[in-house]
Each structure stands twice: as structure tokens, then as C-alpha cells.
Amino acid sequence: MSDRQCPDCDVQMEQTNITAEGVGDLYVETERDGEILDRLGVGQQTSVHTFLCLECGLTRLYADLSE
Q1: Which of 27, 17, 2 has the alpha carbon at shortest distance from 52?
Q2: Which residue range(s) make up the domain with 35?
Q3: Is the pTM of this model over 0.85?
């Protein structure tokens, strides 16, 4: 996953993990009904990566569209 810049602070965000007690890996669940995600080749479960801005604390999740 490529480097990400904070849209507010314009600094490089650090890749990190989000955990929730009793929850496994986080993923985006999509339906494949011919819409945009289907055309992009995104499966029914797509993993996500978490990035954190160490300046302001903004946290963002990005779907891994390269899978």
C-alpha cells in the first residue's frame, strides 16, 4: 500500500492497525451486482489498511483495491 498524506496537515501518515476486542481482520464487504466495485474487480470481502496522522490524529481506512 502506497504512502498517504494527511489532507489537513499535508504530512505523511503512518500505517497502523485498528483492533476491536473479539473481532478478526477488518474488511469492506461489497456486493457484486454489476456496479462500480464489480467493474473494478473488488471481491465480496476486501481488506482495509489504516493510516494515522501523527500531527492531528486523523485516522483513515483504505480498501486494498489491488487484490
Answers
A1: 17
A2: 14-63
A3: no
* pLDDT tens digits along 12-52: 999 998 877 766 677 777 666 666 766 676 657 778 889 99
Residue 9 maps to a domain: no
Nearest to 16 by CA among 66, 59, 67: 59
Q: Please state the domain count of the chain.
A: 1
- Tell me, yes or no, whether 7 lies in a domain: no
Asked if 65 and 42 count as a contact pair (C-beta separation under 8 A), the reply is: yes
**37 is a domain residue:** yes
Asked whether residue 8 is assigned to any structural domain, the reply reads no
Contact 53, 6 (CB under 8 A): yes
Which residue, among 50, 46, 36, 37, has the nearest Cα to 1 in the 3D structure? 50
